[in-house]
Amino acid sequence: MDDEAFLGIDESVDDLDIEGLEEVEYAVRLSNVSRTYTLGTREVTALNNVNLEVRSGDYVVVHGPSGSGKTTLLNIIGCIDLATSGRVLVMDVPIGDYDESFRATFRLANTGFVFQSYNLISTLTAIENVMFPMQLQDHPESELRDEGSRLLDLVNLGERQDHLPWQLSSGEQQRVAIARALANDPPVLLADEPTANLDQESAQMIRDILSGLNSDGRTVIVMTHDPAIISHTGTRRFTMSKGELSAIE
């Protein structure tokens, strides 16, 4: 998926009244959710009757082998993909009941994504990458740079705001990606292998940022192989295998 498609650029999208969604008890509720893909003549089940309830303010970690369905689960929670069957509620909104225009606008305001591959726009500077989602929500131009600078300061990159992605290290690019994910102050932050392929120091910075965001009240859901994230105090831990989700006590 390219950057424009992910961020929901769609001139036909109307403004939606989504105020107050951060006050719901459950940020995410999945009931008997399955996702099946057709590959040629074969059907592949990526998710198999997944049930999950995430309270607002939870820190949820899901781990499991590659191909177990983790990314598919995250994409469904983040309104990038749709379930084949079952019920998906994000911030009490039944996502599957609405069209793509609604989902794009809802996604932009309510879910922040952090990808393993960063997905920064290569021709934009760090601050321009952070400002871009806010521009799509028609924030006043006078506020964009100040808010972009504030978010980059939050991830300790205030002095790098005018650098292009190729001028930043992998760890710095991931921190820009986190700042961008926070651009519209979404109540839910989703991260797919956020510390993969990072050096130890950079990975620890990402862990600390995610933990701090959760401590401030944001719901954080992470798909990861990182044992330091999996064992973090206060997390709710799950494992995925062959599309099935199981809680770890």
What report would you give on this structure?
The chain has one domain (3-23, 56-66, 105-248): Rossmann fold, CATH 3.40.50. Helix content is 33%, strand content 27%. It has helices spanning 3-7, 70-77, 100-110, 126-136, 141-154, 170-181, 200-215, 227-230, and strands at 26-39, 42-55, 59-63, 85-90, 93-94, 111-114, 188-192, 219-223, 236-241, 244-248. A six-stranded mixed β-sheet has the order 6-7-8-3-9-10, sandwiched between helices. Strands 2-1-4-5 form a four-stranded antiparallel β-sheet, covered by helices on one side. Helix 7 (200-215) links the parallel strand 7 (188-192) and strand 8. Helix 4 runs parallel beside helix 6 (170-181). The longest helix has 16 residues, at 200-215. Residues 1-16 have low confidence and may be disordered.
Give a topology summary.
Elements: H1 3-7, E1 26-39, E2 42-55, E3 59-63, H2 70-77, E4 85-90, E5 93-94, H3 100-110, E6 111-114, H4 126-136, H5 141-154, H6 170-181, E7 188-192, H7 200-215, E8 219-223, H8 227-230, E9 236-241, E10 244-248
Parallel strand pairs: 3-8, 3-9, 6-7, 7-8
Antiparallel strand pairs: 1-2, 1-4, 4-5, 9-10
Helix pairs in contact: 4-5, 4-6, 5-6, 6-7
